[in-house]
Structure formats: structure tokens, C-alpha cells
Task: structure prediction
Amino acid sequence: MVSILLWALSSAFVGASCSRAAADLREWKPDDHDRSEENQKGRAAPTRTQPSGSASANPMVTLAEVTWRTQCAPCHGLLGRGDGPQGALLHAPDLTLPEWQAKVTDAQIAQIIVTGKNRMPKFEFQPDVLSGLVARIRAARAPKGR
Result:
């Protein structure tokens, strides 16, 4: 009798606790663990838009940015420094280094994206997205002496 009573009470307790919604239950993302101040600034940076006078964002720039964040940032990081969650494991290069930027052409960057290199897989992107990714990598160039 006691065991039935304990089972009934524990079932009621479990049932009651499962029916409540968590106060802050949101989907976990890898960058939730990346709390460096500089990457926080990168996360908060607004998406590039067309020149002033245009109210809407350029869809290809936006698509290139979304592609970077979903396909490239896990290894290369939000800023391209090779500090993404998987960057150390895969030895992702720092794409912002002036030395690296100086030794590769835009065509070579695009070719690496399309064919892959070392542990980086190949990616198939629309030409506009591919050129947007190359432009984003070029724009991330760090100043000399960083």
C-alpha cells in the first residue's frame, strides 16, 4: 500500500513538473559559448546594405553573410580568424592575416571554396554568393602589425 502511495505521489509530482514551461528555453547555438568581446561586437554588427537612398538590403550580400555564418563560421569564426568552434580541431587558417591575404588571389579563394582544401570540404554556391564570400574574406583583412 505504501509503495502504491509513493508511486502515485511521485507520478503526480513528475507530471506537474513536466507541464510547466521553462522560463528561458531557447535553442543552443555554438556561438553561445563564444563570449569574447570582439566577437560579440561582430555578432551585433549590422548587415551591409546598399548605398544610402535604398531602404532594402542587397539580397546577395545578405545571402553571402548568412552563408558565411552557417557554412564558414563554424571553422573560420565570425570574423575569419580561424577561431570558430571547430577551427582548432580542423586547423582552420586565419583569413584576416595580411600575409595570407597577400599570397592568394580572389580566383584562388573561390577555387578553394569550390574544391575544398585539406580538411575543408568543397561547397557548391551560386556565383553571386561565391563572389560575396570572397569579398567578405577580403573585407576582413586585418591591419598590418595586428
Remarks:
- The chain has a mean pLDDT of 77.
